[in-house]
Design brief:
heterodimer, A: mainly alpha, MetI-like fold, about 75% helix, flat, B: alpha+beta, 16 helices, 18 strands, about 30% helix, globular
Chain lengths: ~300, ~550
């Protein structure tokens, strides 16, 4: 197990370097001049533009910029935004917000999704199962913006239960519920369906018959034997989903004015701010790598037949 | 001295207000109509804003997010009266000149910065010298280019030779002189721009740190900047200007999308709107009732011809351009596609600017398919009988570009298609480098409400924003004459003559003027907008709860 983890950690190094390199060049190849864009609709004063580019280190070749960037990166310097702020500060502001939102959405899809999937799977072919299939299909087919606007109009404007957007200055837990539900709803549908299929299949497995024949209480049969064994596909899905949630949700964060990773990335891309985009992606690559490692380790916990050496 | 008693209230209330600003003004449940409720002078209100892109230094804000905040924190020699766009003195007692080139400025006494230090002639001269210096990377540094010695601190290449401009001289605490490179009769109008604000001495010790917590001399003083969340300012009790705040402070709330801000406004979680988002334009008047705002703005949308490209280079194509302009049904497009959010244009200068003259474009901006066809034929036809209109696809322009093209196609039979570029930057690069082959979306937002700004800065030969590459000796001659006039009024009148030349040459087709389509919540009243589209912050009254 220890050797396996060490090997996986070592494998992360080339993956990390590769993605950072690709992202660096991709963001620097975006059309348009990020420095000139500071002037908006107006034409930039050439002398000022040149001075500005020099200060931002944009007046050297792309390869030189790349070397400078990588060098700074390993000393923990993520560079600065066009406005002169430290990228690490921007990352430090956005991630806590997104993490709160992601965990809430994750908890929602995990708890509700698995519960629905479990009941539907146990009562396969019954009314609850059939309505689950129809409703989850409906949920998957509704685009996120539509769902967001409907929820916002119904729960915030018409019923007035919550505020329509997240109030960044005074963010409270209840303001995050609406975006979290919208964010988690599509994954919830997938989780419910995956759980349902897995449960329904494993109900017919030999070990289930043995457990029932041993006379184990139903709670134990379902909780320990059935559910645990049925979780492997669900965990695989949830693992990658957690990474995706951490990456921020541009659409949902936009609708509910959440000042998280999605919004920050959206604006940075819009302004071609290579340093900011790269900074966020560097952190996200790490999140994804660790999430997938965690999923692989969880397999062994869930299914004792899986061993890592 | 209307509102003097209220001003006293503001003075008395500031100590309390400082604490109150931190709480914001949301969560209000007041209802009812919007006329003349009791005013809470200690009340603060919130405004739909965006995160400032740059440190809050007066010459470093080109985008509205930082620009509006700077406007509340600083006050220059003069500003524009929000009701009619006319120039009025603020820190200046008088600005005198005999030749429109050499100015003597006399300051009023009694103005102080928010840290208590006095505003003197030196505060202005030092600030302008610093802001113009190319090394200090101020986005608006070229605003000082009229001043003698500008090239010493801001050379085209290399390091500056000096740190001060020779054209600026401090006489004493309340007097300084400005010498320009040549006569610029509307220089006083330029002085109303925030780049010409004074700076306190503390600024120069650490400009970067200052940019995070600025100290100005305006009606509001800085309280806090919570990045990506909000910027909070509070009324300054010793403010010496004519426009004393009627409220105790403003919270500039950061909204990444206008839809969210609108939803917050409808539910009274936001008090004053910047602009209604396109998807709510159709219903905002019924949603907000008499709290809806619909007003002309100092900005114009046009489509320009690439006069430098082979197709449009020939000198005799002006009739074709006029014909194309006549083929555009501006009334219908603004009403339907744009939901009434724009006003059809019939000149190259937006209304509200000094020197604006109605209908300078005349019949060429009136829809007339018959005459359009006739003019195009007379002019020898559109090159290739096809035009393209370049625009950026990320700015919501597709709908109206398609509508304009449809109108041209149906009226004249000329093939017309939109030419979308993925984003603003890439389209701007093509336009700036004069690589457009055909027509392009262009627009102009006034820097100051004077017609010269819409004309010389956009259509003068070699002007930075002359995207069409238009070069007319007649226009340049008339503009140069106008610049030599000794009063702003004469300048404006003479520029109207220059504008007539544009109707003859039609380098760009004026389409429509922008409008401020906004609104405010049940918590506030007396919300007015100026020609820049900004609310008159100091006049907003917060209602008693």
């Amino acid at each position: 197990m220890g050797r396996y983890v060490a090997r996986r950690l070592l494998q992360m190094i080339p993956v990390f370097l590769g993605t950072v390199t690709i992202i660096f060049f991709m963001t620097r190849m975006l059309p348009g001049d990020p420095a000139a864009a500071m002037w908006g609709d107006k034409a930039a004063d050439p002398a000022q533009l040149a001075a500005f580019k020099h200060q931002m280190g944009l007046d050297v070749s792309k390869w030189q910029q790349y070397l400078n960037y990588m060098g700074d990166l390993f000393t923990g310097d993520f560079g600065t935004t066009m406005g002169g702020r430290k990228v690490t500060d921007v990352i430090g502001e956005a991630f806590p917000v997104t993490i709160q939102l992601a965990l809430l959405a994750f908890a929602f899809e995990l708890v509700v999704g698995v519960a629905i999937g479990l009941f539907a799977g146990l009562r396969r072919g019954k009314a609850f199962d059939k309505s689950t299939l129809v409703l989850t299909l409906l949920l998957i087919s509704i685009p996120v913006p539509v769902l967001g606007f409907i929820f916002q109009n119904v729960f915030a404007i018409q019923l007035g239960w919550v505020k329509p957007t997240v109030q960044a200055q005074h963010m409270t837990f209840d303001q995050l519920i609406l975006p979290a539900v919208v964010l988690g709803s599509i994954s919830l549908a997938y989780v419910a369906r995956l759980t349902r299929t897995s449960i329904a299949e494993n109900l017919k497995a030999d070990y289930m018959r043995t457990a029932v024949a041993k006379g184990l209480p139903r709670r134990k049969v379902i909780g320990t034997h059935l559910l645990r064994n049925s979780m492997i596909p669900v965990v695989t899905f949830l693992g990658t989903d957690l990474g995706a949630l951490m990456g921020g949700a541009i659409v949902t964060e936009g609708i509910f004015n959440v000042q998280g990773v999605g919004n920050a990335l959206y604006h940075a891309i819009g302004r071609s701010e290579g340093a900011t985009v790269s900074g966020f992606v560097v952190v996200l690559v790490l999140v994804f790598l660790f999430a997938s490692l965690l999923v692989d380790l969880l397999y062994a916990v869930l299914d004792p037949r899986i061993r890592y050496a | 001295m209307r509102g003097a008693s209220q001003a006293k209230w503001v003075v008395a209330a500031v100590a309390v207000a400082l604490a109150a600003t931190a709480c914001g003004s949301n969560g209000g449940s007041s209802s009812g109509s919007n006329g003349g409720g009791a005013v809470n002078a200690q009340g603060t209100f919130s405004y739909q804003s965006t995160e400032p892109q740059n440190p809050l230094q007066p010459a470093n804000a080109m985008e509205v997010g930082g620009g509006r905040i700077i406007k509340t924190l600083f006050k220059g020699l003069v500003d524009y009266d929000p009701t009619n766009g006319e120039l009025r003195n603020q820190v200046a007692d008088k600005i005198e000149t005999t030749d429109a080139q050499n100015y003597t400025v006399t300051l009023k006494s009694g103005w102080t910065f928010h840290d208590g230090t006095p505003v003197t002639a030196k505060s202005f001269v030092d600030a302008w010298n610093w802001s113009a210096n190319v090394k200090n990377n101020q986005i608006n540094s070229d605003w000082f280019s009229d001043i003698q010695g500008y090239t010493d601190v801001h050379p085209d290449e290399g390091d500056p030779k000096a740190t001060t401009m020779s054209g600026l001289k401090v006489v004493d605490d309340t007097h300084f002189t400005i010498a320009l490179n040549g006569p610029v009769s509307y220089f006083e109008y330029k002085l109303g721009y925030t780049a010409f604000s004074p700076l306190p001495e503390v600024f120069f010790t650490d400009p970067a740190k200052y940019g995070q917590s600025p100290i100005g001399n305006g009606p509001y003083k800085f309280v806090s900047w919570e990045h990506n969340k909000a910027v909070t300012v509070a009324a300054y009790d010793k403010y010496a200007g004519v426009d004393k705040p009627k409220n105790a402070g403003i919270v500039f709330k950061n909204y990444s999308q206008a839809e969210g801000a609108y939803k917050d406004l409808v539910s009274d979680n936001l008090d004053v709107l910047d602009q209604v988002d396109p998807s709510d334009l159709a219903s905002y008047k019924s949603d907000l009732g008499d709290r809806a705002v619909d007003q002309a703005q100092g900005a114009i949308q046009s489509i320009s011809f690439s006069l430098y490209a082979d197709d449009w280079k020939p000198a005799n194509l002006s009739k074709v351009r006029q014909g194309l302009s006549m083929a555009i049904d501006r009334d219908t497009i603004t009403k339907t596609v744009l939901n009434g959010s724009r006003q059809p244009a019939n000149s190259w200068v937006a209304p509200g600017a000094m020197g604006y003259k109605d209908n300078t474009c005349g019949e060429y901006c009136t829809y007339n398919p018959e005459k359009a066809k006739q003019l195009i034929t007379e002019g020898g036809g559109v090159p290739g009988n096809k035009i393209t209109v370049l625009y950026n696809a990320d700015g919501g322009h597709k709908e109206w570009v398609d509508a304009v093209c449809n109108s041209i196609r149906q009226a004249t039979g000329v093939e017309c298609v939109g030419d979308p570029k993925p984003d603003f930057k890439s389209s701007r690069d093509l336009i700036k480098n004069k690589k457009v082959d055909g027509l392009m979306r262009t627009g102009w937002v006034q820097d100051y409400p004077l017609n010269a700004n819409f004309l010389r800065d956009v259509y003068g030969t070699g002007a930075a924003a002359n995207d069409a590459g238009y070069s007319s000796p007649e226009f340049d001659k008339l503009a140069a004459e106008a610049d030599k006039a000794t009063s702003v009024k004469d300048t404006a009148d003479l520029y109207q003559k220059a504008e007539e030349q544009l109707a003859k040459d039609m380098p760009a087709i004026p389409l429509w003027y922008y409008k401020t389509t906004a609104g405010y919540s049940n918590n506030v009243q007396n919300v007015k907008y100026d020609s820049f589209g900004d609310p008159v912050f100091t006049q907003v009254e917060v209602k008693q709860k």
